[in-house]
Amino acid sequence: MATLSIIIPAYNEEKAIGEIIGRILKEKENISKSSTIIDVELIIVDDGSKDKTAEIAKQYSEVKVVTHKTNQGYGAALKSGFNVARGELLAFLDADGTYPPESLVCLCQAIIEKNADIVIGSRLSGGEKSKMPKIRYIGNRIFAFLLSWVADKKVIDSASGIRILKREILSKLYPLPDGLDFTPAMSTRAIYENLKILEIPIAYEERVGQSKLNPVKDGIRFLRSIIYFAKQYNPLKFFGSLGIICILFGFFLSIRPVTFYLFNRLVPEPYIYRLLFVLIMFVAGVNMVSFGIMANFILSIIHRQPLRPLWLSRLIYEKRLYGKFALIGFLLGLSGILINIPSMAEYFTTGNITVHWSYFVTGAVLILVGLQLFSLGVLLKIVEDLSLRGIRAKEDMER
Fold first, then answer.
1. Which residues are bridge partners to 39 per DSSP?
2. Which of 5, 6, 167, 370 is the most buried (most CB within 10 A)?
């Protein structure tokens, strides 16, 4: 047996609030009949409305109304509702009529029967009709794709505003933002916390009244939330990918000048600037990959869970390639020095240098990259030793 609290955040929704309350109250009996839920409460959070939203909600004796004196945001309203809710299960949906409260029955059945942590009503699954505006449909598809990519798990609708979750998982989801990016942030955090998520197809209707969503402003917020949480759990996915792109781009740009030099023993002036840019790309790429590797290693210790099954993670950590970074870095740096020994010897003996400048550029790249890898290898070893020391100390204390 379980209890359910349904939270509706509302801001200037006087045209729709009465209808959505009535539909939910009608569904209370169906929810109880079709699942093991024994009690359903409805909470309206009036988020500083300037119209009659709160007055209309207070006319229903079965409804608990929470009032914000000022508008604090969609996420803040939901968190206020969670704080006063009694239910072991927490559901929420919008007040504008876009999400059908009749879908709550199947969402409740799913979370109980499948023992899920979160059940999301998916507007993009294709199983039900959807009247979502084109621009929002495209945006939601893009965000779902990005979240699927960064999390290595397929997500269909990352920003749906109708969900049911277990109260007990809130500690794993918090902190969450106060704005409209609350839902994509919740989806991202839930995936990285390895919570069981189900997506159930639902219908999506045209809203009543004017939308508060700004596609550009809120789209940037959604993207920022996904990136923010991804960086907290898997920074190698971002920085490693960016670093590899920089290295590959630099390699692509170097093909023509290097080929020209090999055939003509000459580098025209335009190619000089290109090669300097290539130098920046290589060094920047190695720096970003190194940062991602180090950050993932530290976060795996902080979160006390294995790294996500990214191919680069498996190569570096499971094959213990990171243990060879210091040696690889030392060899690269040494190679950079050896390449320039003839020119240095020539300078100290004759005061002149006749060796082509490209040797200095190549040597500089090898030395800089070698120093980066050597430093990374040493730092990873220090972190690993400290981690093992903590584990062994704990084991000794428990004996």
1. 3
2. 6
- What residue type is 26 in one-letter code? K
**For residue range 206-230, what is the model confidence (pLDDT) as tens digits?**
655 455 555 566 567 667 777 776 6
DSSP string, 127-170: SS-B---HHHHHHHHHHHHHHHHHHTS--S-TT-S-EEEEGGGH
Domain boundaries of the chain, sorted by first residue: 2-232, 235-398
Helix axes 241-264, 269-302, angle to 10 degrees: 150
In the DSSP assignment, the letter for residue 206 is P
124 touches 145 (CB < 8 A): no
Spatial contact of 66 and 45, defined as CB atoms under 8 Å apart: yes
Pairing of β 37-47 and β 63-68: parallel
Global pTM reads 0.70
Distance CA 163, CA 182 (A): 12
Q: How far is CA 385 from CA 144, 304, 306, 379, in A?
A: 39, 15, 17, 10
CA dist 369 and 286 (Å) reads: 7
As a dihedral over the C-alpha atoms of residue 236, residue 238, residue 241, residue 244, rounded to 10 degrees, the angle is -80
Cβ–Cβ contacts within 10 Å for residue 318, how many?
A: 11
